[in-house]
Design goal:
- This protein is an alpha+beta fold.
- Helix content is 21%, strand content 29%.
- A hairpin with a 5-residue loop joins strand 3 and strand 4.
- The chain is elongated.
């Protein structure tokens, strides 16, 4: 009996170690235009096609999430490698179905690299990074 009382007294004196409940977010405070936490600010459009890069033209295989409805002729897009480093700035020339052709403006993309619709920050960063590589 004394051990039970001792355990209860110890529990009361030390308290329970628990995390406080997170604050709930009021529905009115969430913008309908906000992105979920962790979402990239550079939406993936597709990948550099398996076809060899021919001169200044490259094929972009579009992903289903961002179909041709989201990609228009004249868009500037950025290809990037698996380390998310920009490899080229491209200008979309033509969109047909789930594929687009693009002109290489700066840099050199490689097969299977991700192609994203860049934020202003990524586009500026890519321009600066690829300019420094082309001068060396």
């Amino acid at each position: 009996m004394k051990t039970i009382v001792g355990i209860l007294a110890l529990a009361l004196l030390t308290g329970c170690a628990s995390e406080p409940f997170p604050k709930t977010i009021e529905p009115d405070s969430v913008s309908p235009f906000s992105r979920p936490q962790g979402t990239s600010s550079n939406p993936r459009l597709g990948f550099i096609g398996n076809e060899a890069v021919k001169g200044e033209i490259v094929l972009i295989e579009l992903v289903r999430e961002n179909s041709s409805a989201d990609v228009k002729s004249g868009f500037l897009v950025v290809s990037r490698n698996s380390q998310l480093q920009p490899t080229a700035i491209l200008k979309v020339k033509e969109v047909k179905g789930m594929a687009a052709t693009a002109i290489i403006l700066r840099g050199q993309p490689s097969r299977d690299e991700e192609v994203v619709l860049p934020s202003a920050l990524l586009l500026e960063s890519a321009g600066n990074q690829l300019k420094s590589h082309s001068n060396s």
